[in-house]
Structures are given as structure tokens and as C-alpha cells.
Structure prediction request, 271 residues.
Amino acid sequence: MARDGRPAVMASGTPTEPGPTRLPCNLRDLGGMRTLGGRRLRPGLIYRSDDLAPADPRRVRSLVTTLDVGTVLDLRSDVELAELGRGALEREPVEVHHLPLSLTAASVGRTEDVDGLPTTPEQLASFYADGIEAAAPTLVRGLTLLAQTSRPALFHCVAGKDRTGVLAALLLSALGVPREEIVADYARTAANMSVLLGTQGLGSGVVDTARVERIRSLPQVLLEAPAAAMEGCLDDLERRHGSPLGPLWDAGLDEGVVAALAARLLDAETG
Prediction:
């Protein structure tokens, strides 16, 4: 918790206060970034995060009351939701949309079979791109909900790295944020991975040690956030579709949604 009572939030690459009692530890405001056209994402409107379920109820309450978060997109799988629950968020007056997003390491923490999982940043990049293509309708729904809400919104998965990172990258692409800023945002998660790995399976306050061990047995690249993975993913989508948003346009993304996102999240145009 910051000294002014607000939850600790990463704004420009500074890690949140570490430690299991400081969950969520991978929470950050996407505000402050600038688009290629020179407009700025307004702070305090869109947050990305790791799972809120294991967070202290006081932290969750602060998200709702101090940051005024009113809409939450939960990208976890049905199984993860059943196992981990929603924690204190269940008791808060927020609109929660469950959008199960099957993407790369989304459910690998539950499997004993690691064959076929990416072991290099290049393979992880392709895995992300393949996942975006397969999950395009769900991603379109996510962007649409973010465009429609009138209050600050937050989206999360479990670690806030893969599924959350992909949605963040596509949102920022839709807003016209430069590629290097999108990649840098993804890579900021690396600073929090040690804390995240130590708290996986914390659902309702009881550590699932078997889940933690399965996660720790995964290929090392899945326990990191290499910039090359997101850079390569965006490059792959450019080659395959002409744009990172190509699969989403094919899945029905509407120009009106992109315009609504810009109107809601960007400051006024100048000049």
C-alpha cells in the first residue's frame, strides 16, 4: 500500500512493493503512454494485473474505492476460477466479466505434460500469435467491454503475464501506441516474476504446493517475460495478417469499438 492509502501500482516500470502480503504485485496503470499521433493514455482508467483472488481484502477494497475500479475482466479458465475463486472481489460492488482465454501458459500450471511447450522466446512468440488467432473472438469481446464501460477497468489472469499481456498488447495496438512501448510494458512483468512464482496457487489463502511445483517444472521461458517474445509475436502477426489486429478484424472487431476505446482512454486531440 502506498503512503497515501492508494494501492501500490506500477506506472512506468517501477515494481510494486514485493511480498505475498502485497498482492496483487503485478498491477499497473497503462495510463501515461503516448500514441504515434502524440495523444496520451489518461491515467487511472485502465489497469492490468495478476490475480486478485489471493489479495488481502483491504487491498481489493482500495482498488474499488480509491482507484474507483468498476469493471473487471477475469481471463482465467473455468478450472482456475473454480480452484482459486474470486476472493474478496466477490463482495465488492464491481461488474465482473469472466472471459476464459485459452492462450499459451494459461493452464499449463495444471498439467504434468510439458512436451510441446515453448522453450525459447522465439517459440513463445509463435505460441502467442497462434493463441491470438485461436482466441480472437474472446479478445474482441474483451476490447468491446473495455470500450463500453464508463468506469475505470482492470483485466487480469493468474500471473498477469501471458493472457493479460496479450490483451494489453492488442489494446495498446488498437490505440496506436508505438511497438517499443508495447513490448516494454510486457517486459515489465519480469521484475515481479519471483514474487508471482512464490504465490501461485494461493487461491483462498492456502498454498497449493502441488500446483506450485508443476509451475516450477515448466520451461524457464514460461517463467520469464522476455521482450523478444512479445516483439516476435507482433512481428508474426504482421507477417501473417498485415497487422497485430488482423485476427481480431477477421473475428468481427468493429471500427466503432476502436474509436470508442480512443475516445474513452486517450486525452483530447490537439492541433
